[in-house]
């Protein structure tokens, strides 16, 4: 009996053990393979595409919280869409084309920013533990202008959430949106807590020389450069300093002129940064300087830094009035000045002195509408080649009505005669605009359009149906911008 048991044991050792070892080896191989897949997936998730990286570096960013805003529940003030639009027009006119927000509360900001002409937005999430805000952020991130999401701002430092929560939310946000995600803490935290370097697709720390007792502009720039370079030694990720700058009041040695000098010097360094911040925030607590970081005051009036901004980045544009001719009179306009009047040197309140266009549409013509197209060459309906405007991204123009309430349609492109030798390569419509009696900037997005043959750059149209009494309106600064 014993010998039979011994024989069975020997059989198990000789036959079954090698099979078990093979299975175990296969299990280890699968485990290693799965680990490689997970590792590769994580690397892919944390890698920025060349396109996004280029946009992050090329766009001129500004940190933005609205004017006419107060989050304090006791004195809560919510900005209107009109107020937000006015904010963004001020910033865009100063040369900014990227916005960085701090919370996902105002879901209309991406839409308005795109209409005003901004190219990109970094969407902020203030509270990483707020399910409602996180849901809003995931929905808002569907907007194509939103290039990335920044979850939290110094929340670890202020103990608003813990590291595990932050890491989980960043990963969930990236998975839900398919877009780059990062977070923000003060720059020194990335050195003392190396785990922060592993969170997100790029780094967006806050780096304030003032909070390190450096207020003199040139020394503050030196501090910023050194801090940026020191952090670069610890990571291969792109670094975009989210907050830098100097406040303009609240302590000795601070001034609007010092702020302007800081940015004048910083823009010529290799530091990649976001201007902080758009407007003064009178509602801010936490120290005498906190309300005074703005490049603009709370009433949207500019500080001296505006001169630095205007000199740092000139928008390249083509002036339609100088390169095209308002020669394409259509509809009742074909009958000449019986139904259309024009003064191309109107001097009373132009948007950009000394002159603007004044147009009058007079009803009563047989077709019930009139329109004018800016053409190149003069009176070209496609029999000659137009201008090649490849590389231009938007059409911008300023318009106002005599009284307000006038309705005018705007288009760009098109308007080639049937069978034209050189037909237009694009046509974009802004649609019908109800005018105000004050100047408004309008923008037509031309991204993705074929501008290789532009014989008609700009068209306005007015009709009897929309303007039974006729209408008078003004146009200025009609531009194609890159």
Structural class: alpha/beta
Overall 3D form:
elongated
CATH architecture of the largest domain: Alpha-Beta Barrel
CATH topology annotation of the largest domain: TIM Barrel
Given as residue ranges, the uncertain stretches (5+ residues, pLDDT < 50) are: 1-45
Strand content: 15-25%
Q: Specify the biggest β-sheet.
A: 6 strands, antiparallel
Number of domains: 2
Helix content: 25-40%
List keywords for this structure.
482 residues; alpha/beta; TIM Barrel; Jelly Rolls; 2 domains
List the topology elements:
Elements: H1 2-45, H2 50-58, E1 61-63, H3 81-93, E2 98-100, H4 109-116, E3 120-125, H5 131-140, E4 146-151, H6 163-177, E5 181-182, H7 189-192, H8 217-232, E6 241-244, H9 256-266, E7 273-275, H10 305-312, E8 317-319, H11 320-323, E9 325-331, E10 340-346, E11 356-361, E12 369-375, E13 394-401, E14 407-413, E15 427-434, E16 440-445, E17 456-463, E18 471-481
Parallel strand pairs: 1-2, 2-3, 3-4, 4-5, 6-7
Antiparallel strand pairs: 8-18, 9-12, 10-11, 11-18, 12-17, 13-16, 13-18, 14-15, 14-17
Helix pairs in contact: 3-4, 8-9, 9-10
Task: Describe this protein's structure.
The strands form 4 sheets. Strands 8, 10, 11, 13, 16 and 18 form a 6-stranded antiparallel sheet that branches. The chain folds into 2 domains: 46-312, Alpha-Beta Barrel (TIM Barrel); 317-481, Jelly Rolls (Sandwich). The N and C termini lie far apart (94 Å). Helix 3 (81-93) packs across helix 4 (109-116), helix 8 (217-232) crosses helix 9 and helix 9 packs parallel to helix 10. The protein is α/β, with parallel strands linked by helices. The chain has 11 helices and 18 strands.
